[in-house]
Amino acid sequence: MNPVQLALRVLRVDRRSRLSAVLTALGVAVGTTLVLFLATLPSAVDARLERSAWQHSAVDERNVARISTDYFLNETVVRLDVSGEEPGSDGPEYPGPGQVLLSPRLAELAAQHRASELADRFPGEVVGTIDEQWLKYPEQLVAVVGHPPGTLQPPKSGFGAVSADTSDVLLDVLSGVGVVVVAIPSMVLVASAARLTAARRERRLAALRLAGATPGQVIGVVTAETAVAAVVGTVAGLLLSWPLRHLGAMVPWGGGTWLVSDFTPSVATIALVGVSIPVLVVLAAVLGLRRVVRAPLGAAMSVTRKRPGAWRLLSLVAAAAFFLFGLATAKQTQGLGVLLASLAVVLLSASIVGPWLTGALGSLFASLWRKPSMLLAGRRLRSDPKAAYRSVSGIVLAVFVGSMALTLLPSFETFAGGGRSFQDSVLYVDVPTAEAAAGEQRIRDELERSGTAATVVRTERVRLELPDGYASPALVMSCQDAAAITRFAVADCAGPPAVRAFARQPVPNTGLDVWSTPPESASSATAQEVPLPDGVPVLPLGNRDPKVSSSAIIDPALVPEFTEHGTTTLAVKPANQADREQVRTALVRALPGELVNSRERLLAGQQTMLGDLKRITAIGLGMTVLLAGASAAITAAASVVDRRRTFSALIAAGTPVRTLGRALRTEAALPALVATIGAGVAGSAVAAGFFTLFATEPVVLSYWLLAPVVIGIAVALIASSSSGPMLRRISGERISDE
Q1: Where would you find the membrane-spanning parts of this chain (predicted)?
Q2: Which of 127, 368, 412, 469 is least surrounded by CB atoms within 10 angstroms?
Q3: Rounded to two decimals, what is the model's pTM?
């Protein structure tokens, strides 16, 4: 009888082996589904970028296209002003002069709101909508406005031009981390399912070895048994990944959801996942046969295994040293390869140290026991610490990742804020100084045409250079205008023209120079220096927000020689917050193609990224906890199955089933308590190291860091309750069955 026939016969006649095979196939299916989905994320990002590539500005002999971004109700609007022929097959057909194309979502918003708030920004007749195959995501707001040929100037670098997206590095990194974070608990789930009949199978295989079977034959039997479940689970996982695409497409990222087709895996990806996962599962099962192959008699008699040695503690030191080395390498070279490898080593060190820690904990409680359940649990932890730790290994990973996330996310939130020095309601446009006067007049005309009350202020962007060579950004504007539109706390505007600067930055009243800020399209050599007169009054300037970009206000009367070689900001503050969208519309009409800035636009990227990180973290942790909980529950049930003889003997000797149940719960709680606390501390420490790559400030620690530890212990206790039905079933069986 060949190994495949023998494996199929075992599955046909042994109910426990069938249950183990079914659970193994289920674990493989879950792991395959999630790994295949995560493996499609990089290609999904590429699909987004390919669809939206036509939106970015291009200039050639036939065609002029100018792109800018706008905002409406905190949603980004991509505007493309075109003049010339359509781009061909790389995008939708361009509208003609006086015509407009809108994306479906933008057309819906334009119909729902007053024309002065949105539709008037796109002058012309709306002749159609843009198909979603040309949108980055289905909800993207895009407008294409047609102009007569020759009437649209090419974009000026630094004023309204928007660079094309090239990749989503954050999502690429998260997808790689997600594959590891999801794959490891999935493999733990598979291993837990395989352990459901491990002791019985080990005795059966040992009997085959003692009866004369060669190691190759034993390995063949195990390979066949495992391959049946692994192949069935992999096929099921590949099929389940198809409906999972629809759920994944509903998860927002980068401002919008996805198309279902984005998550279609390539044939190569399907083949790689479909082959590698069964091979890994079979390989793990074969590696677990070392004891049967080397010492079949000891396996048959269930001889106690050698306890883990204290040398395992050295792995913690080695992992910490490697992580510090990876951190230093990342800071010097900006490469993350070594750092991510060191993170994997840190995770591996937990599986090395965990069994030793579990055994030491068991020895402690076995010597200090006060109740029979404590004694039984302590002896179990001491006699087989590897099996005891296996039940919480997935939970340890979940707690580690959760602690990292809850340390990094609040710390990254401290970066939010800042931006230009204007108040939140102010809208502004940066233009070359030579065009500022004409632009300001067009803005006033548009505001008057729409009947919108607003304050229009012109300010020059400059650098204030101190005698010691230090230079800081500054604005040339009157004290009254600064009080009206900036976030500076201007006290009293009475007195002669002055320089107002932060008190924390001492500014002398002599040796000061003002440098203009050339446009990005111009050379820095065009910057003009204007020295300030000695003895100029320097007054303290407070601010309402510590993260403003400018640090000084210079009265225009002090720089009368300031020329047109610079950058001017035209700022508009609505009289009423309700008129803000009408003011934005006036700016867009007055300066078509220019980038209308606001504080929410500058913060939008930060807020979107933080929201995406929180969402992905919650989803990832949820999946990890579910997988870890399932593996812990199966492991708890497997521990009862493995010790059927022991429990049957204890019950026959008069040990109450309730006492055995408490012992099983204690077995789960003790390793979970110590391991999750250690994982929480390690996760926060690793997160603190990662944070040094972005800032010098310490990480933000909160009470929420206790949540992963508490949840981990709770999941372990709930999972341990799965051993109760199995224990009660054993108590009703005859001891002669074992």
Answers
A1: 21-41, 173-197, 218-243, 263-289, 310-330, 336-366, 387-409, 616-641, 668-695, 701-719
A2: 469
A3: 0.72
pLDDT band at 322 (very low <50, low <70, confident <90, very high): very high
**Element of type H or E holding 686:** helix 657-691
Domains of the chain, residue spans:
1-59+157-303, 62-153, 309-417+606-636+656-737, 427-603
Inform me whether the pLDDT recorded for 544 exceeds 60. no
422 three-state secondary structure: strand
> Residue written as tokens 């603190």?
688
CA angle 536, 458, 464 (to 5 degrees): 35
Burial class (CB in 10 A: 0-12, 13-18, 19+), 293: middle
β-bridge partners, 81:
66, 145
Q: What is the DSSP string of 308-363?
A: PPGGGGHHHHHHHHHHHHHHHHHHHH---HHHHHHHHHHHHHHHHHHHHHHHHHHH
- What are the pLDDT digits (tens) for 250-277? 988 888 899 999 999 999 999 998 998 8
Side-chain half-sphere CA neighbours of 68 within 13 A: 27
Find which of 11-25, 286-300, 397-411 is predicted with most confidence, using mean pLDDT: 397-411
Q: Is 287 exposed, middle or buried, given 0-12, 13-18 or 19+ CB atoms closer than 10 A?
A: exposed
Task: Name 40's Cβ contacts closer than 8 Å, sequence gap at least 6.
Answer: 245, 262, 263, 264, 265, 269
Closest CA to 660 of 590, 726, 584, 736: 726
